[in-house]
UniProtKB/TrEMBL annotation, chain A:
Membrane-protein topology: Multi-pass membrane protein
Source organism superkingdom: Bacteria
SUPFAM superfamilies attached to this UniProt entry: MetI-like
Transmembrane portions of the chain: 20-41, 53-75, 87-112, 133-159, 202-224
Chief place where the protein resides: membrane
Lineage of the organism: Bacteria, Pseudomonadati, Pseudomonadota, Alphaproteobacteria, Hyphomicrobiales
Protein name: Molybdenum transport system permease
This protein's record includes keyword Transport: yes
Subcellular location: Cell inner membrane; Cell membrane
Family that this chain belongs to: Belongs to the binding-protein-dependent transport system permease family. CysTW subfamily.
Domain ABC transmembrane type-1: 15-223
Keyword terms of this UniProt record: Cell inner membrane, Cell membrane, Membrane, Molybdenum, Transmembrane, Transmembrane helix, Transport
Gene: modB
Primary role: Part of the binding-protein-dependent transport system for molybdenum; probably responsible for the translocation of the substrate across the membrane.
Automatic annotation (TrEMBL), chain B:
Keywords: ATP-binding, Cell inner membrane, Cell membrane, Membrane, Molybdenum, Nucleotide-binding, Translocase, Transport
Keyword Nucleotidyltransferase among UniProt keywords: no
Residue ranges of domain Mop in the record: 293-359
A Pfam family per the record: TOBE
ABC transporter domain residues: 2-233
Gene Ontology terms for molecular function: ATP binding
Official protein name in the record: Molybdenum ABC transporter ATP-binding protein
Annotated family: Belongs to the ABC transporter superfamily.
NCBIfam families: modC_ABC
Superkingdom classification of source: Bacteria
Keyword Nucleotide-binding: yes
């Protein structure tokens, strides 16, 4: 068993980096995820199907294509990347932040889908009732809608986190595979499989991936059940 | 309080065009399904925006399409009790009750949570979740929640429709107390004459999106022609009567009012209190001379004030008893056999057993006082 815990510094870095990238991707996706889900579930505006298609695009496109598009847009010489670098000093290309961006974009459609479904399931008559009791639309959202969609929000976050943990194609295309900076678990496993004698390391990281994925799944079940417990009685 | 409505609103093929004013303590919006009652309360509550027209309450304009005024529902301060209680499933009963209170300006909060909980008898439910409540309990909590938001007007959209007879009977007294003790005017949607006769002071009859009649409940309930076919059997006179004496040996109470004296069985009210009595038109026999040797205890002398025969098998006879009108429904054959004519002296005969719990109701002290002078313990 010792071999399983005996990680090299590079392997540790990959584990830590992967978790950091996935957490950052999930947390930063959440606010726009809820807004877009609300727009798609309830908005009536021109270009709604266009927005819907755009959000879901990363789900359908080959990840390498998404990664390449990110490189073109957010690369140092890309239109958005150059602006961000010049005015805010934010650089995505070949940094872990770029990995988080790529993972966030790839996980975004999954998150939006889960939240959107839960918003569509909310009984709007409850919101109307809250309105007659004096709650402004913002209060209605905070005290009625948000608590009611919480299980869906948690499910969306876990899906996004899991997708981010496993993201490979877009990440490696956009930010490459630099140990300690952009080498996440999947990239590290891929690297091990490309060198002779790398089997042991690949297996170690694979088992760690499975443990993290299972942990996230169990955590989401517990959280969703706790959030949904009081809703089920109705 | 006065509520003034003059709106027109189209929903698909249905057009609601309603104009009425009411200053009653409990105004019933009465009409068959699809007559526009719910649309009308949704317009008053601000859940719908009318295509044209204006609604104002106590001089405060809630909506006026001519001047572009539309007060959103959360600023109207109008409590709404829905047919389905709509309690928030993620909150306890206590949290549900306090929800609207939180949004009411502190200086305008009326009543106290303890009083309302007491009024509605829901003290034992406070820690429970809405999912574990019975239909009647849910509806009581919903009434309390609306009440605690300190509304200036309460709308009730068939709050009893989804409940069985027992649960209805369980809630009615609470609505009566609400009407008599809080002083907050109520607009009550119903298609049941029994509910309207028991609760309403005023009445607006809707039919196919139009106001067929508006006035006091006592007047309109006598107009059998206004009632839908399936409810016509329930129509009749409504009187407020004083309990004059009680006869414990027979379990009877003697009620009195200008219309005459009536014996009622099994009435749970003290001597001196005021009760509301409904005499269904079909429960009245008409006699041309004072009957003898008959089990019916109530014989009210009067004169025929109106006679509606028409071509159907029934005749509607309006009998004037000391200035109070009683509607009686008999067959056209009887009317012909007795030779009833306008102005004829007749006797209205009513069996005491026709007064069941559904058409005798207690009204609180002061309920029959002129409007606006009702004692008001909850709003003190």
């Amino acid at each position: 068993m010792q071999w399983l815990l005996d990680l090299t510094p590079d392997e540790w870095n990959a584990v830590r980096l992967s978790i950091r990238v996935a957490v950052v991707a999930t947390v930063f996706s959440l606010p726009p995820g809820i807004v877009i889900a609300l727009l798609l579930a309830r908005g009536r505006f021109w270009g709604k199907s266009l927005l819907n298609g755009l959000v879901h695009l990363p789900l359908i496109l080959p990840p390498v294509v998404t990664g390449y598009l990110l490189l073109l847009t957010f690369g140092r010489r890309g239109p958005v990347g150059a602006l961000l670098d010049q005015y805010f000093g934010i650089v995505f290309s070949f940094r872990w932040t770029g990995a988080a961006l790529a993972c966030g974009i790839m996980g975004f459609p999954l998150m939006v889908r889960a939240i959107r479904l839960s918003i569509e399931a909310v009984d709007r008559r409850l919101e109307a009732a809250a309105g007659t009791l004096g709650a402004s639309p913002a209060w209605v959202f905070g005290t009625i809608t948000l608590p009611l969609i919480l299980p869906g929000v948690i499910a969306g976050m876990i899906l996004c986190f899991a997708k981010a943990m496993g993201e490979f194609g877009a990440t490696i295309t956009f930010v490459s595979n630099i140990p300690g900076e952009t080498q996440t678990l999947p990239s590290a496993i891929y690297t091990f499989t490309q060198v002779p004698g790398g089997d042991e390391g690949a297996l170690r990281l694979t088992i760690i991936s499975i443990v993290i994925a299972m942990g996230a799944l169990v955590a989401s079940e517990v959280l969703a059940r706790r959030a949904g417990r009081r809703l089920e009685v109705e | 309080m006065s509520l003034s409505v003059d709106i027109s609103h189209r929903l698909g093929a249905f057009t609601l065009e309603a104009a009425f004013e009411s200053s009653g303590r409990l105004t019933a919006l009465f009409g068959p399904s699809g007559s526009g009652k719910t649309t009308l309360v949704n317009l008053i509550g601000g859940l719908l925006r009318p295509e044209r027209g204006a609604i104002s309450c106590d001089g405060r304009v809630l909506v006026d399409t001519a001047s572009g005024v539309f007060v959103p529902k959360h600023k109207r301060r109008i409590g709404y009790v829905f047919q389905d209680a709509r309690l928030f499933p993620h909150m306890t009963v206590d949290q549900n009750l306090r929800y609207g209170r939180f949004f009411a300006p502190p200086t305008e909060r009326t009543g106290s949570t303890a009083d309302v909980v007491d009024l509605l008898g829901i003290g034992h439910l406070l820690d429970r979740g809405p999912g574990s409540l019975s239909g009647g309990e849910k509806q009581r909590v919903a009434i309390g929640r609306a009440l605690l938001a300190s509304p200036k007007l309460i709308l009730m959209d068939e709050p009893l429709a989804s409940l069985d007879e027992r649960r209805k009977a369980e809630i009615m007294p609470y609505i009566e107390r609400l009407r008599d003790e809080t002083g907050i005017p109520i607009v009550y949607v119903s298609h049941s004459i029994a509910e309207v006769a028991r609760l309403a002071t005023d009445m607006v009859v809707l039919d196919a999106g139009k106001v067929a009649a508006a006035g006091t409940a006592a007047d309109l309930l006598q107009r059998l022609d206004l009632l839908p076919d399936e409810e016509r059997d329930e129509g009749g006179a409504v009187f407020e009567m004083q309990v004059k004496s009680r006869d414990e040996a027979f379990g009877m109470s003697l009620l009195t009012s200008p219309v005459g004296e009536i014996h009622v069985a099994e009435l749970d009210a003290e001597t001196g209190t005021t009760v509301r009595v409904r005499i269904r038109a079909r429960d009245i026999m008409v006699a041309t001379e004072r009957p003898r040797g008959i089990s019916a205890l109530n014989v009210l002398p009067g004169r025929i004030a109106a006679l509606g025969t028409g071509t159907g098998p029934f005749a509607d006879v309006t009998i004037d008893c000391n200035g109070q009108e009683i509607a009686a429904r008999i067959t056209r054959q009887s009317a012909a056999t007795l030779g009833l004519t306008l102005g004829m002296a007749v006797f209205a005969v009513v069996k005491s057993v026709t007064f069941d719990r559904r058409n005798t109701a207690r009204t609180a002290a002061g309920a029959s006082l002129p409007r606006g002078t009702t004692s008001n313990p909850l709003v003190s």
